[in-house]
Structure formats: structure tokens, C-alpha cells
Specification:
The protein is mainly alpha-helical. The protein contains 2 helices and 2 strands. A hairpin with a 2-residue loop joins strand 1 and strand 2.
């Protein structure tokens, strides 16, 4: 089955945003944790490594999910594959 040019563009944009967001997730989850001892500065009154482990990474995860949902909704509308709500 041959994809149309619009479908290929949609899929490429989907893969690109997924790769970027997964890279951000990897950095927040593993890189910050790996270098936690070197992150010795105060952030909102707490050591940065503690703040990222306790709250910061969770905030970033929620932001990633929210951005992905917003972006994909916009991409669906752009390529005419958005779900239509029926009343």
C-alpha cells in the first residue's frame, strides 16, 4: 500500500516530535540523575538534584505529555485526520 505525500509528511513529523520528546525524557531521567552530585546549586531553596528528583522531573513529564497532545491535535487538523465530535 502506497502512502500519499500528506500521509508520509504526517508520519515524518510524528516521528520527529516523538524522537525529540524522547530525547528530552532521556536527559531528564538519566543524565540529570547520573550527574546529580555535580549539580550542587540551590534551586527554589533546595539542592537542584533533590528538586529534579522529587518534583522537577515529574513537572517535565507532564509538560511533555501536554505538549505532545497539543502538537498532535494540531497536526491531525493540518492533515485532515482529526476526530470530529458528534453532538
Amino acid at each position: 500500500m502506497k502512502l500519499t505525500q500528506s500521509q508520509e509528511l504526517y508520519w515524518q513529523k510524528n516521528l520527529r516530535i516523538t524522537a525529540v520528546l524522547m530525547a528530552i525524557w532521556f536527559v531528564v531521567t538519566f543524565v540529570v540523575g547520573f550527574f546529580a552530585r555535580e549539580l550542587n546549586f540551590t534551586f527554589f531553596g533546595w539542592p537542584f538534584s533533590f528538586w529534579m528528583g522529587a518534583q522537577g522531573s515529574l513537572v517535565i513529564y507532564v509538560a511533555i505529555i501536554g505538549f505532545y497532545a497539543w502538537y498532535m491535535n494540531r497536526l491531525d487538523i493540518e492533515h485532515g485526520v482529526a476526530e470530529v465530535e458528534e453532538d
